[in-house]
Amino acid sequence: MPFQPASRFPPRPKIKLKQSSPTRVGRSLIGRLRVRLSSTAFAAALTVLGAGCRRTFEPLTPIQRGEVLYRSNCASCHGSDPRRPGVSGPAIAGSTPALLEARVLHRSYPSGYQPKRDTHLMQSMPWMAGKIGDLAAFLDSTSTGPRSVKAISDRLDSRE
Asked: Residue 148 pLDDT > 60, yes or no?
């Protein structure tokens, strides 16, 4: 149907309001009470359901905080598994806090340390100054697990 301007519509009929009889007033009062009671019950139900949704979260352990740091700052170069070499960074599972502090904060190596690679691609990350312990805890926890599926199968074969 094409659009018709407002002038083509017939005028609205005027509605006359009737005076309410006493029974009609009583019915509307009951209707209003029902609406109020149902809205009150609905609000109470929402309150009860909302109270069940509140969760308290346990604080993260140092290993969990270190994993968050690793995944957000290190995994892009060192890979998702710190036990294996990444695209541009070596495997760093089990790295000592001294090595992590020197590399992450100062772009250097501890005295006497022989680097795994002869590149200097890694940039310093000063925002991690107070978090080296957490990162070290995560990397230490990953070094104790099995290094690969082949390592697991070799260990099982050696038992036979």
From this structure: no
